[in-house]
Design a protein that fits this description.
The complex is a heterodimer of chains A (146) and B (497).
Chain A: E1 2-3, H1 6-30, H2 35-59, E2 72-73, H3 89-114, H4 120-145
Antiparallel strand pairs in A: 1-2
Helix pairs in contact in A: 1-2, 1-3, 2-4, 3-4
Chain B: E1 12-13, E2 16-18, E3 21-23, E4 28-33, E5 40-46, H1 49-68, H2 71-87, H3 89-100, H4 104-121, H5 124-127, E6 131-137, E7 140-148, E8 151-155, H6 169-174, E9 178-182, H7 189-201, E10 208-210, H8 215-223, E11 227-233, H9 236-249, E12 253-257, E13 262-266, H10 272-284, E14 294-300, H11 304-319, E15 323-324, H12 339-354, E16 358-361, E17 369-370, E18 382-385, H13 392-395, E19 402-408, H14 411-420, E20 423-424, E21 426-430, H15 434-443, E22 448-451, E23 467-468, E24 471-473, H16 479-485, E25 487-495
Parallel strand pairs in B: 1-5, 8-9, 8-11, 9-10, 11-12, 13-14, 13-21, 14-19, 15-17, 18-19, 21-22
Antiparallel strand pairs in B: 2-3, 4-5, 6-7, 7-25, 12-24, 16-18, 20-23
């Protein structure tokens, strides 16, 4: 599905954050060795959703291209939010890395599409993408330790 | 994606808000219809002369105490109002979509713009300061004190039911005046919601009043000797032939903002990637129902390749616009406000075709509505080529989702077309050349000028300008000019022998 309006992209981003938060909460329960980090990630997701919402509600005006700022193909950013039954710790970490990559790509693409139109929204998207890149590095480090 | 929940359930009985009370009207009652589905969502009174008189009385009675209230205390009322508007942001936005039909992005944008005016007015303790000169002659000082005048009438249009009265009202009350707002009877719910929050914010009774209705209320305001001034936003014929002269005749201050027929000048060096979405917003945003909307593009130069690429770009993008219920977050364009307005737009399209314009995207029939809604108020984007500056679709305001394309050879010709038009509200140029941009902004006689901006909407701390048939008056709404409009300059010369 293609999303063009800011409202729909904001809702999509918030849904991704909620799904990703759910994923990390489950990960914390299932893998005690990653519990602290996963719970921290889940909490951060809530912060990201708030940051995005604030940026949008702060910058949206009748004068900008709110309904024409994006061409987001949602199929490209579908994340695997469930951990399969019996999945090993390393595979779970890999799934988390894949999810982060999808989310980084979503935020980077959406920021690029809207940079001429939506002022603070693309800037916030890039901040979230950068923080998620840090996350990806942390997850990869855990994989290495494994 | 799901459709957002409607905040207005059932049928709201709209009342007047006079002297801090919700009052039933004795006038006839009119239905308020959601243009998306034709459902009646409210009933609004068409108030009587006695009711507008009662509101003026209440406002007049409240004025002396309100005027004596220190500006910082008045500002605190506005701070509380601002907080309440933020808390209720989403509901206020969805109400606009329900009563007007605009998309949720547009409604949220309108809410933000309205709140920004309240924010600016919160700065009244400094905005309202006067100035002085010591020793204009030895031992004599002179100073200026901006003082409020009394009661002001604010008449709102249908296209921005939430925001436009807030271009005036926060500044009027911040400076110590009292207001009576008459919302458009087609879309009264937003102002009713604001008045509920005004009440909660603790403004004294009589400072902020809302009287619903039509001509009787407008005439009651225009004729009333205790109303010091009027701000009006609406059509040019009403601004020019009714509001402005009648205010002149009764010695009232006036800001009368009228219609427009705005030009978007396209230079061949512009970035089409950025320009086309800007044009979509300008021409088709709010279904074209705004005085800052683009009505015609003027494509400059004889580069046929660029011209074809431009036309293909706008037509292809406009064709893909998702039309439907504005509470569906994927929708990019809602309906026009009512069937009569649609009829008027259709008649302009026919006029254009008869006059020789070539229809290249037919919004009369070539569109699909997302969801199961009647097409009573819906139109698709219409694009016409071979438009000439003399055509009615250029010289008159259409107020709908239409784009006329005029082609000229030079920037000079484009500027001449802009300047020959009777309206001068907002014209813009799209270019990557600084010299072209400067030339355009220097020579074009528009109140609001855009450089690579399709909707030239001044922020709350700038005046909402307009020239010739788009504006009647001297000072404008918003920011410092509004503060000036709502205050008299009292000059004191002081000597203590």
């Amino acid at each position: 599905m293609q999303l063009n309006t800011s409202a729909s992209v904001m809702s999509f981003a918030k849904q991704l954050e909620a799904d990703s938060s759910g994923f990390y909460q489950e990960m914390a329960q299932r893998y005690p060795e990653a519990a602290a980090l996963s719970l921290a990630f889940a909490r951060e997701n809530g912060k990201y959703a708030t940051m995005i919402e604030r940026a949008y509600y702060g910058v949206i005006t009748d004068a900008i291209e709110g309904c024409f700022a994006f061409t987001v193909e949602t199929d490209k950013y579908v994340i695997e939010k469930q951990l399969a039954k019996g999945l090993g710790y390393a595979d779970a970490l890999n799934q988390a890395v894949n999810m982060e990559q999808k989310l980084i790509s979503f935020y980077t693409d959406a920021a690029e599409q809207s940079k001429a139109f939506m002022a603070d929204v693309p800037r916030t998207f890039l901040i979230v993408a950068k923080k998620r890149k840090d996350r990806e590095d942390k997850l990869r480090a855990l994989l290495k330790e494994k | 994606m799901a459709i957002l929940e409607e905040p207005v359930k059932g049928i709201v009985e709209v009342k007047n808000y006079i002297d801090g009370e919700w009052v039933d009207s004795q006038g006839e009652i009119q239905d308020v219809v959601n243009p998306i589905n034709g459902k009646v969502i409210a009933r609004v009174p068409i108030s009587t002369k006695e009711e507008i008189d009662a509101a003026v009385e209440a406002a007049k009675a409240a004025f002396p105490d309100w005027r004596r209230t220190p500006p910082v205390a008045r500002a605190r009322c506005l701070f509380r109002l601002k907080e309440l508007l933020e808390t209720n942001f989403e509901e206020l936005s969805r109400v606009q979509t329900q009563e007007h039909g605009k998309t949720i992005d547009e409604s949220r944008g309108e809410t933000r713009r309205g709140i920004e005016n309240v924010e600016v007015a919160c700065g009244i303790p400094t905005l309202m300061q006067g100035y002085n000169s010591e020793d204009i002659a030895s031992g004599i000082d002179e100073y200026l004190i901006p003082t409020p005048l009394g009661v002001f009438g604010i008449i709102g249009p249908f296209n921005f039911p939430f925001m436009i009265p807030l271009w005036s009202a926060p500044y009027a009350v911040a400076t110590g005046n009292c207001v009576i707002i008459k919302p458009s009877s087609e879309v009264p719910l937003s102002q009713m919601k604001i008045a509920e929050l005004v009440d909660e914010a603790g403004f004294p009774p009589g400072v902020w009043n809302v009287v619903n209705g039509g001509r009787t209320v407008v005439n009651g305001m225009l004729d009333h000797p205790d109303i010091e001034g009027i701000t009006f936003v609406g059509s040019t014929p009403t601004a020019k032939n009714v509001i402005y002269p009648r205010c002149g005749a009764t010695g009232k201050r006036v800001i009368a903002q009228g219609g427009a027929s705005n030009f978007m000048v396209i230079m061949p060096d512009c970035s089409l990637r950025a320009t086309i979405p800007a044009l979509m917003t300008s021409f088709f945003g709010n279904a074209g129902q705004r005085c800052l909307a683009g009505q015609n593009t003027v494509v400059v130069g004889d580069d046929d390749r660029f011209y074809s690429e431009f036309v293909k770009g706008v037509v292809d993008t406009a064709k893909r616009i998702v039309i439907g219920n504005g509470l569906d977050e994927e929708v990019q364009m809602g309906p026009v406000r009512d069937a009569d307005k649609k009829k008027k737009i259709l008649s302009y399209i026919s006029d254009g075709i008869k006059a020789g314009a070539k229809l290249i995207l037919d919004g009369r029939s070539d569109f699909k509505i997302k969801g199961d809604y009647p097409d009573t108020c819906f139109l698709g984007p219409t694009i016409m080529e071979k438009v000439e500056p003399r055509m009615k679709i250029v010289t008159e305001e259409i107020f709908g989702p239409t784009m006329g394309i005029i082609r000229v050879k030079t920037l000079d010709e484009a500027i001449e077309i802009c300047n020959a038009n009777p309206f001068h509200n907002a014209d813009a140029v799209f270019t990557s050349n600084g010299r072209t941009a400067r030339e355009f902004k220097y020579r074009v006689n528009s109140g609001n000028v855009g450089i690579n901006v399709g909707i030239v909407a001044p922020m709350a701390f700038f005046p909402f300008s307009g020239i010739r048939d788009s504006f009647f008056g001297i000072l404008h709404t918003q920011g410092k000019e509004a503060v000036r409009f709502f205050t008299e300059s009292k000059v004191v010369i002081e000597r203590w022998p």
